[in-house]
Design a protein that fits this description.
By secondary structure, the chain is an alpha/beta fold. The chain has ten helices and 14 strands.
């Protein structure tokens, strides 16, 4: 089957759609695009994000770009330059900002309910590792998986990171190491406001998608546990058992994905700033690159080095 894309949804475009669907065996219309649009969602492979962003920006289209904008700082800065010349809306897809649990933690911290944050703990563990083919092109765990946790650290601390140190290993699948990546990591960071962050990552948690956060402060603590299908706990002669975490990100964060797109649309409609702009995309990648440098050089790395 040949998948065809059609650019332009005017009269002739509709004619071709109908003719292909009814009269061209072995072909189907996969995508229909029209220039008369307000915004675009860039959900293609990472190596295309920056170039498509620039093309869309220069065409005057508002852009929602999945993370990361690019693995290369220079290319992200090219997007920033394009935005300076064409001030359209630009939002980066860090969906966890819109998760109900993490929003509640951030709101409690921002409201001063736990005082000055001292320690931020982030646990992020996948239920199973990605394919080796994906690992080879992902940019590595820090720019693919942990980048969400770097963004979350900034979100909860309310500031940028200052220094990062990584210990990592290949404990899940030797093939991941052979592909040049790691699958298990403990990361510590110092934030600009003095708070300390500890992140632990694993590519395989046999019990499900493990996503937890805790912020400990001068006046208290706020924490959230995993989402589960229900909060039921069974207590009997065999023990006390509860539900496992939701299995993967589609179940865990589906509502967050919807909320982030609503925020993008609202920014366009109301002419307001997007909640996560190009600078947020840049800072998370800088943290990911600093993490890679720390692992390679076996030392703490200041974000200013990147």
């Amino acid at each position: 089957m040949i998948n065809l894309g059609i650019i332009g949804a005017g009269r002739i475009g509709r004619v071709h759609v109908e003719s292909i669907c009814t009269q061209v065996p072995g072909a189907k219309v996969k995508t229909l695009a029209d220039p008369e649009i307000d915004g675009v969602l860039i959900c293609s492979s990472t190596d295309t994000h920056a170039s498509i962003s620039i093309e869309a920006i220069e065409a005057g289209k508002h852009v929602f770009c999945e993370k990361p904008v690019d693995h290369d700082i220079g290319k992200i800065k090219q997007v920033m330059s394009a935005l300076e010349k064409h001030p359209v809306k630009y939002q980066v897809g860090f969906n966890r900002h819109f998760d109900h649990n993490f929003q509640a933690v951030q709101e409690a911290v921002a409201a001063g309910e736990i005082g000055q944050p001292h320690i931020i703990r982030i646990t992020s563990r996948d239920p199973e590792p990605p394919s080796i083919d994906y690992v080879k092109v992902s940019g590595g765990m820090f720019l693919d998986m942990t980048i969400h946790d770097f963004d979350m650290a900034r979100f909860l601390a309310g500031c940028n990171a200052e220094e990062i140190y990584v210990q990592a290993a290949v404990l899940v699948d030797p093939a991941i190491g052979e592909a040049g990546d790691v699958d298990t990591a403990v990361i510590t960071m110092k934030m600009e406001n003095g708070s300390l962050v500890a992140i632990d990552n694993s590519r395989k948690a046999v019990y499900g998608y493990d996503q937890r956060v805790e912020v400990f402060g001068a006046d208290g603590m706020v924490s959230v546990s995993n989402d589960t299908t229900s909060s039921a706990v069974i207590s009997n002669a065999n023990g006390v058992t509860g539900e496992k975490p939701l299995y993967f990100f589609l179940e865990r964060y589906m509502q967050a994905y919807a909320k982030e797109i609503r925020s993008f649309v609202n920014a366009i409609q109301e002419d307001t700033e997007t909640p996560l702009g190009i600078v947020d995309g840049l800072e998370a990648v800088r943290m990911g690159l600093a993490a890679k440098k720390s692992l390679e050089e076996h030392r703490p790395v200041k974000i200013s080095e990147i």
